[in-house]
Amino acid sequence: GVLDLGCGTGRHLVALRDEFGAEAVGVDLQGQMVDYGRRRHGVDLRCGDLRSVRLGRRFDLVTCLGNSLSYLRTDEDLRAAAETLRVHVADQGLVVISTLTTPRIESVKQTVRVETDFVAANVEVMSAWDAVRRLQVTHRTWRHDDGTTDVDVLRRRVISVDELDGLLHEAGFDEVRWVGTGLAVAT
Asked: Which of 1, 29, 50, 179 is the most buried (most CB within 10 A)?
């Protein structure tokens, strides 16, 4: 089976299920994302915290994608998440993590188009690096097609490759391999 921690609406989980034909379970902290994903994708999504959830079973593949780890700000939270990964991966199983490992130092402003089932907007994005807190701070202004505007701020921790490698080894993973700069595979 496949477990996706921080699954959001389960989009990645559906792709993994369809590709490998495996039982798929997802966990996310945000109930509205879980509810939407259940309705839309018909997969087993559950509300829970990736730092503490315990499902009482192990999976051949455990994923933590979409920068879910970057929303954990403390070392204790990251250690707890690494432990959750470890207790859910089967012997000979794999853990795949995608997270921010390199900060964007320069401030960059860009506009992107977002169109989904529930939003259509041009989004102005401005990111800045907070070196003291090791946070990538992203301000977004959503200019919706209906004329309304929303603003939000993302504060995501950048976890260095060495830091994440150490956390995974500390949690009991024997081998950690890196693919590029933000994708780790642990066994």
From this structure: 50
